[in-house]
Amino acid sequence: MPLDWDTRLKIALGAARGIARIHVENGGKLVHGNIKSSNIFLNTKQYGSVSDLGLATISSSLALPISRAAGYRAPEVTDTRKAAQPSDVYSFGVVLLELLTGKSPIHTTGGDEIIHLVRWVHSVVREEWTAEVFDLELMRYPNIEEEMVEMLQIAMSCVVRMPDQRPKMSEVVKMIENVRQIDGEPYSSSGNQAEQLKLSQHDSGNSPSTPSYFPRGSE
User: Fold this and answer.
1) Which of 2, 9, 130, 147 lies 20 to 30 Å from 26 when distance is taken between CA atoms?
2) Helices 5-28 and 169-179, interaxial angle, to 10°?
3) In tens digits, what is the pLDDT along the chain, a chain of 219 residues?
4) Phi and psi (nearest 5°) for 38?
5) Torsions phi, psi of 60, nearest 5?
């Protein structure tokens, strides 16, 4: 079932807060290293919660399939295979683009052309066709155009090529909070304590161009 705009904002805010919390741990040196939509769950309040913390360090020597991982990797990680906090920011930016566009990080067209989401969004925005970026499902909701553009600007700031030009996750949290005051209630936004909903278009076998959001069964 496609997510409405309010839920997408909550997913973005919850996940951003969770990653920001991770980044202050261990003296501000902790890195998640594996931010992607299939590692984001919804808690009972429908906020995004980040899972799989620490698994990237165990599996960093393993090459992940291109369809699952490459689209989230910052350019410097592709080159060095070393994740850092700025590369987490890049990966989160890709997740934001997924929420905004309804497209996977890497997908193919009818002619089997491979499309990289970040490059595609850059090209569309450069041609000033910004409205073409957004998921058609979002067009059903009135009066959200300004918020969508603001979220797109946040996403684009996260996926700039140079790591030192990306915002810190604490700054990203403030930017998302400034888009709209969603809910002032405290909640836990990291860990997989969540209510068992999973945001994933990569492990479900569904069409890569349209994310699916579905209940996560007990394991």
Assistant:
1) 9
2) 160
3) 678 999 999 999 999 999 999 999 888 989 998 899 989 988 888 788 888 755 444 444 444 444 457 899 999 987 777 889 999 999 999 999 999 999 999 877 777 778 899 999 999 998 888 889 999 999 899 999 999 999 999 999 999 999 999 999 999 999 999 998 765 544 334 443 333 334 433 333 333 333 333 233 333
4) -75, -5
5) -65, -25
